[in-house]
């Protein structure tokens, strides 16, 4: 038992030197998500303002759209560099909370309708039945188009639930509490430089 405990402690000691890698993985996962979301908002900014105002009934729609857009764009760059991670994660978390409660909450948990999931809402079974009915009709009546639609994967019904936004929020919370990661971020090297002064 003592040998096993000693091996465990030795392994944990070795892993401690690489504890920045999972945080780097989180940052590299989140950076393109926020970059794409932010640059898409920027490319269609007037439409986003209209949606914030009329679709979501958010106050100060132009300001909210600008804040969401630039938080995501700047956040993506900082996540990639590992700079100011604890600081930028807070407005990104706020953006995810707004997305969860203003956009995705009415649709339940699932991002994609799956009646077999534990968190399926009342529309998941009907959505899947309709999709399967359409695909069956397409296959019977237009096999070439069916092949074209299904060639690269199985079509799904987007449920637009909170699943993805909640997942990103949890990942950002980890970054708030753990930081950008040792050896793999500008935060780490900036912190060391400050300590050496």
List keywords for this structure.
9 helices, mainly alpha, 2 domains, 197 residues, extended
Report what the structure shows.
The structure is a single chain. This protein has helices at 2-16, 20-43, 45-55, 61-81, 85-104, 124-141, 143-150, 163-178, 186-196. The chain folds into two domains: 23-108 and 161-197, no CATH class; 112-158, no CATH class. The protein is mainly α and 197 residues long. Helix 2 (20-43) packs across helix 8, helix 4 (61-81) crosses helix 5 (85-104) and helix 6 crosses helix 7 (143-150).
> What is the makeup of the main sheet?
none
What's the total number of strands? 0
Mean pLDDT: 92
Provide a count of the helices: 9
Portion of residues in beta strands equals under 5%
Give the ordered list of helices and strands.
HHHHHHHHH
Going by helix content, strand content and strand pairing, the class is: mainly alpha
Proportion of helical residues: over 70%
The general outline is extended
Q: Indicate how many domains the architecture comprises.
A: 2
What distance separates the N and C termini?
Answer: 46 Å
Low-confidence segments? none
What's the gyration radius in Å?
22 Å
